[in-house]
Amino acid sequence: MIEILTPTELTRARESGALVADILHTLKRRSTVGTNLLDLDRWAQAMIVEAGASSCYVDYAPSFGRGPFGHYICTSVNDAVLHGLPHDYALADGDLLTLDLAVSTNGIAADSAISFLVGDSKPAESVTMIDATERALAAGIAAAAPGAQIGDISAAIGSVLSAAGYPINLEFGGHGIGSTMHQDPHVSNDGRPGRGYRLRPGLLLALEPWVMVDTAALITDADGWTLRSATGCRTAHSEHTIAITEDGAEILTLPTRTNSRGPAFT
Fold first, then answer.
1. Mean of the per-residue pLDDT values for the chain?
2. Where along this sequence does the record place binding of substrate (predicted)?
3. How far apart are CA 176 and CA 215, in angstroms?
4. Residue 190 labelled as part of a binding site
């Protein structure tokens, strides 16, 4: 299913996007050495409930997971990159943490992810990898104009990741989003320009470049959810939900301190 949102629905999507971003950036500030992943999950739940929104994760039970997910946020540490199931782990100095969150406000969902380093230790390889995913995300957003095609976005993302020297996994990537979290079209993190679905105003996409230092292969934890690099190398993941408009792509998942829609959580 591919949804094209009405102007009223797009307004609700903006609300969802701002909420997702505010929660993520609040949790980033709280992610200090010694913070437990289960506390991050509880804080995410409290902020979602306080906002009157709904979690897209807690009851999520796709075919590839051991569902339902049962938590409110994905917390992926170091060699974990996707669907990190929160568990009893205290963050250490230098950990590379990815937070991935999707919520729905008034029936419209938004999805975003951020990767960052915890504490004072900043391993250069990790800094470089996070930067590559952020630059790839920016390139994909720049390519997302009305009349462009999904392959144009994929090629833009893939060109940045490949130039940075990272293998690219094509199993998991971006996706359409709207009344549900995961919809068509699939947005691969590499591809050929001029191919695939043609973008129209009102389309929402979640773009999410992610990489692993030295492999494109994933393994699944015993929890049935957490995906890790097959070699144990570090990983990074950046994601925004965007709306295709008549003028280009509008990023919906910016914190309110950036988009001036009010104060972020503290």
1. 95
2. 83, 182
3. 26
4. no
For residue 167, cis peptide bond before it (omega within 30 degrees of 0): no
The number of beta carbons lying within 10 Å of the beta carbon of residue 208 is: 26
**Residue 50, annotated ligand binder?**
no
Nearest to 174 by CA among 92, 81, 111, 243: 111
Helix (H, G, I), strand (E, B) or coil at 206: strand
Question: In the structure, what pLDDT confidence band is assigned to residue 25 with cuts at 50, 70 and 90?
Answer: very high
240 known member of a binding site: no
129-168 burial by CB neighbour count: b if 16+ within 10 A, else e?
bbebbbbbbbbbbebbbbebbbbbbbbbbbbbbbeeebeb
Name the CATH superfamily housing domain 7-258.
Creatinase/methionine aminopeptidase superfamily (3.90.230.10)
**Mean local confidence (pLDDT), 217-232:** 97
Evaluate whether 94 touches 130 at the Cβ level (below 8 Å). Answer: no
Q: pLDDT tens digit string along 158-200?
A: 999 999 999 999 999 999 999 999 999 999 999 999 999 999 9
Residue 265 confidence class, pLDDT cut points 50, 70, 90:
low
DSSP string, 21-80: HHHHHHHHHH--TT-BHHHHHHHHHHHHHHTT-EESSTT---TTSSS---SSSEEEETTE
- Whether residue 15 is annotated as binding a ligand: the answer is no
Task: Name the token pair of 30.
Answer: 């709280």
pTM, two decimals, is 0.94
Q: Residue 257: its pLDDT value, please? A: 60
Task: State the Cα–Cα distance between residues 162 and 134, nearest whole angstrom.
Answer: 14
